[in-house]
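fyi for ur records
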Amino acid sequence: MHPLITTLRFLLLSLPLLAHAGLPQSSNVPGGVMVLQLGSTSAIADKPQAWFEDRPVLVTADEGQWVAVAGLPLDSIPVMHELKVQLGHETVMLPFDIRPKAYPEQYVTLKDTSKVELSPADLARAEREIAAITELKQHWRDAPDTDLNFILPAKGELGGRFGARRFFNDQMRKPHSGLDVRAGSGKPVVASAAGVVLAVDDYFFNGKTVFVDHGNGLITLYCHLKRMDVKVGQTVRKGQRVGLVGQTGRASGPHLHWSVVLNGAMVDPELFLETQQMRDEKAAIKPSVRGEPVEP
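which gave:
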């Protein structure tokens, strides 16, 4: 057995592992991000490989440690789970728990009822697009390094939070899959980190949307854009403009909807931006919100 396996198991079961600067905040809840140390880079020469639910997981080096950074789907069952890790020629299953989390409710009234009660043609279009987006979310590109220290992609007040249980015209729909930034129409939207443009398209629900692939299963989406300023395959740097804030798709007002995908799971973008100001805003958020700009 690998000499670090016993230590790894002890750490996972007994000690909370906190993310350092440059890593997202560790939050073992549905829709959260799990950050686990896998051992010293000096003791383990080759980068470990990791999988969660048969999907590859991002592994990076941070302050002399190999670290696994895994996205936890919103529909994750809050019980004990396992991370599969390969250390050299040995494979170990590392247990970890997912804790329950109660997300707030969000009520939105849309004057355009066609975005709530879809016609047969719109429903067929939406289903095709959802299938295409689901495939894009599974994209994996091996990269030597991935920048996990994100910047907020637009300047404005934070609106609808990730995970909120949403009701459109009092009809329940899927939970909110990202973070809304209230910014005026035409304001710049920039890449939260360096990457390669994976897709550029205009969707029924998301509106004009840019996907940026940051490598190793980390992808960001910028939705409801008024204009898209990049092309598929283009390399973008952190802070480079990818489009302008708009109100395309299903939205009740101009804003940016920003999503983060990690190993195929939609996760809370604020975990990549954690600051004291955002923690204070989270504590003050109301359990039910009506009339905010929204996304699908």
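The two ends are 48 Å apart (CA to CA). thats all i got for now
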